[in-house]
Automatic annotation (TrEMBL):
Ranges for domain HTH gntR-type: 22-89
InterPro entries: GntR_C (IPR011711), TF_FadR/GntR_C (IPR008920), Tscrpt_reg_HTH_GntR (IPR000524), WH-like_DNA-bd_sf (IPR036388), WH_DNA-bd_sf (IPR036390)
Protein name per its UniProtKB record: GntR family transcriptional regulator
One Pfam family here: FCD
Organism of derivation: Bordetella trematum
PROSITE patterns from the UniProt entry: HTH_GNTR
Any one GO molecular-function label of the UniProt entry: DNA-binding transcription factor activity
Length: 238
């Protein structure tokens, strides 16, 4: 039996989120995954094909394709009755996913030292500034998920700068599934942990600026492991 996390009803889509034209199954899958990562869709939430088709302005066919893709990524699950729900990750699944992700992203950071161009460092610095600004804005009670978008961009820039396309694919894969739904727990981190997270990003950035591969790898591995600990603590207390 699949455990269900209690929560309020799903929020209605904003005008920006409501599609006015047909969308591909890939675009739909990416948007659903983003909503899982930001906590709008929480573990155990049902995903109605009819409601999604109406919202995205498409038939049920691309919705089914998107859900099948997300099921293969372990971001959603199917109940015995065939209903799609956001996956409820076990602590074991989350731990294993983050352990793999730490090694992959640590390798990417080490490789990026040799390939990262000055303009990419500038993009990374700008991304980190926006990440810190939007994450701190949550302390002031502001809503929104921009900080998660900047966090994802920060990690993606480093993965792309590794120069290893297969490694990039593996990292992207690991950022979905158990990690995606587990990140909804991280979105509730208190201010003290937000500042720690910002400092961890800055340590990674500093090592990359110094072109210090071992330091960049270590900073990234430690950052991902600390995020894993945060998520597991929140899961245990929920």
């Amino acid at each position: 039996m699949i455990e269900r996390f209690p929560r309020a009803a799903l929020a209605m889509p904003t005008p920006a989120e409501t599609a006015t034209s047909m969308r591909s199954s890939t675009e739909i899958a990416e948007e659903i995954l983003r909503r899982i990562q930001t906590g709008r869709y929480r573990p155990g939430d049902p995903l109605s094909q009819y409601e999604l088709a109406a919202e995205f302005g498409t038939s049920r066919t691309p919705i089914r394709e998107a859900l099948r893709f997300l099921e293969a990524r372990r971001a959603i699950a199917l109940t015995p009755s065939g209903r799609a729900i956001v996956a409820v990750p076990s602590a074991k699944a989350v731990r294993e996913a983050f352990q793999i992700r730490a090694e992959l992203e640590g390798l990417a950071a080490a490789l990026a030292v040799d390939w990262l161009r000055d303009e990419e460092l500038q993009r990374l610095s700008a991304c980190q500034e926006e990440y810190a600004r939007t994450l701190r804005s949550r302390v002031q009670g502001e809503r929104g998920s921009q900080w998660l978008d900047h966090n994802r961009s920060f990690h993606q820039i480093i993965a792309q700068a590794s120069g290893n396309e297969r490694l990039q694919e593996l990292i992207t894969e690991m950022q979905g599934g158990s990690v995606a739904s587990a990140l909804s727990f991280a979105s509730r981190m208190p201010p003290r942990l937000m500042e720690e997270n910002i400092r961890e990003h800055e340590a990674i950035l500093a090592a990359l600026r110094e072109r210090d591969g071992p330091a960049a790898r270590q900073a990234m591995v430690e950052h991902v492991h600390r995020t894993m600990d945060l998520v597991l603590d929140w899961m245990a207390s929920s």
